[in-house]
Amino acid sequence: MLLWFVFGAIFGVWNVFQSPGLDFRLIAAGALLPELIDLPFGAQAYAHTLLAAVLVLVVTMLATRGRGRRLRRRRVLGLAIGWFSALVLSAAWTHKEVFWWPAFGAARPSAPLFAAWPVVVVEELLGVAAAWWTWSRFGLRDATRRRELFRSGRLTIVGEGA
């Protein structure tokens, strides 16, 4: 499930925002965090709720308020954006008790953490396709571009800057 979440989030976020100013390392981390946090429950639980994603967004906005922090905010927003991406990629929105918790009761929400294995295989294959797209689109064959991604989290389309 690693490729599906990491590269699915990168693919989706780039195609929606097309902003090289986002930190794609944080988008990838944000896409994995709900899975990692809910792993001990063995099910989609608190981290897969809309409330959790909104709390991450609110904390990000509050922590980066003030003058001169716009660039930091834009970069750190990647964590919240990645978290929202994880809710889409994990289909948490299809389980109303999880997604809308605690609106339908305060009991711990629960839905399968992962889909059935044939679906997981298809998702991972789509993750491989998204990884190949990322590798090609942003010229990550070039060691300089890979270093820039790992150093700053930034992606630039081949032919648009270095």
Q: What does this 3D model show about the protein?
A:
There is one protein chain. With 162 residues, the protein is an all-alpha fold. The chain has one domain (2-152). 62% of the residues lie in helices and 2% in strands. It contains seven helices and two strands; from the N terminus they run ααβαααβαα. Strands 1-2 form a two-stranded antiparallel sheet. α1 packs across α4 (70-89). It starts with a helix and ends in a 10-residue tail after the last helix.
Features:
mainly alpha, about 0% strand
Distance between the termini: 31 Å
Largest sheet: 2 strands, antiparallel
Average residue pLDDT: 92
Order of helices and strands: HHEHHHEHH
Strand content: under 5%
Instruction: Figure out the total of helices.
Output: 7
**Structural class computed from helices and strand pairing:** mainly alpha
The low-confidence parts are: none
Number of folding domains? 1
If you compute it from the alpha carbons, what radius of gyration comes out, rounded to the nearest whole angstrom? 17 Å
Number of strands: 2
Q: How are strands sequenced across the largest beta sheet?
A: 1-2
Portion of residues in helices? 55-70%
User: What characteristic shape results from the CA principal axes?
Assistant: flat
Short note summarizing the structure:
The chain has helices spanning 2-17, 24-38, 50-63, 70-89, 96-99, 117-137, 143-152, and strands at residues 43-44, 111-112. The protein has 162 residues and is mainly alpha-helical. The mean pLDDT is 92.
